[in-house]
Structure prediction request, 246 residues.
Amino acid sequence: MRKLVAGNWKMNGNRENLLEIKKVSDRFSGSDVDIIVCPPFTLLSAAKEIAANIFIGAQNLHVDNSGAYTGEISADMLEDLGVTHAIIGHSERRTECSETNDVVARKVKTALKKKLNAIICIGESEPERKENKTLSVLKEQIYGSLKDITGTENIIVAYEPIWAIGTGRTPSLAEISTTHDSIRLNLLEMYGSSASNIPILYGGSVNGLNASEIFSVANVNGALVGGASLSFDTFSPIIKAIENKT
Ligand code: 13P
Prediction:
């Protein structure tokens, strides 16, 4: 399984910040890790031009490929730019833009048709965690977000506990292990043995200090990184940590 680190810039970054992406691309040329940076839509084209050694991804896409959808961006447009990945169903979009599992599944289907790699986000809220519902919530999200998706190619799953995003808090390694094992089992139930090749990323307050121990967990195949992906100095230790995972 290839190792993978993705940076989600969310609504951050202007043209002056492109240098951070270029530095990552230059420094990690030839790395055995798939490095993906997902800047805002406004920077996708420029990022693609200056960062030849890494992948550039989008943070969202529309269900349809064209039409009267003011302000939206389609998979066609992303493909046209050479974008290779798209984050779909991030918890911020599930919460703030009312993206249901059903919408997520339709977006995944659209992305896959264009051979975009779909980084599908799942994760429980703090109350759900406290009520011991984490594994059942995740199972429902996995089945719902992959509804009618028949193959495992170009699928990446990112487990991001909502309460760990941007908070500096992370689950214990034992919790991450239990959760990722359960996600793998759900995927195996759905797809059989081909699901063993689906990368499962952990996301939520990953940084240069905790990355190595998080990557030591068996079914953690990489990370989806928010804040720490915004600068070369904070992102590169995370990439080095996964490079060292055996
Ligand atoms: P942080 O790494 O800032 O906690 O964000 C995680 C995230 O939401 C990535 O998609």
Observations:
- The two ends are 11 Å apart (CA to CA).
- The chain has ten helices and eight strands.
- The pocket of 1,3-dihydroxyacetonephosphate is lined by residues 8, 90, 160, 165-166, 203-206, 224-228 (CB under 6 Å).
